[in-house]
Amino acid sequence: MKEKLSAVIAILERMEPLYLRVHNLLHSEREALIQLDYEKIYEILVEKDEITSVLRSLDGERLRLQDQINIMLGLPNSDINLRDIAERNQKNFPELALRLLDLRTRVNHSIGQVVERISVNRSLIEKSVKNLQDIAKNFSRALRGPEEGEVEGNKQQHGTYDGKAKYSGPKAGSGSLIRKQL
Asked: Can you tell me the distance from the alpha carbon of 147 to that of 150, in angstroms, rounded to the nearest whole number?
């Protein structure tokens, strides 16, 4: 059991700096997106892919070790987590259990930071794409003029006031808010 716990701890010790590196890369990616530095973005994507691959491999190994620990604890069909493992081994291996809990907390925090940074970058990318679409649409409109049925300022959609206290536009209202039925 001690060897399995030590192996899980070693995996978590390798994962923590990798998650911190991904977080830093996401920050750099944000800056590169703002500056539209496509070469830098590509370099970051390649490095992120490499690190993600390593993290997947490490996480797969961690899960395999957790399954082995489940079997050793007599819980072959249960879904035990790192906290449960640490708590169940607190009595026999107190130093390892404390180290496992500490690393679990730190890695979990690092993952949270990565998720938050991904969300921020996604929002930035979505806004940038929307802005670029609007710019392209306006530029295209300026080159070729408005499409058929499209009137500048959307006057056709909202109607106009012609200065004679009359409303002209699509679907003029009946003037009544409530309609009586008999």
From this structure: 5
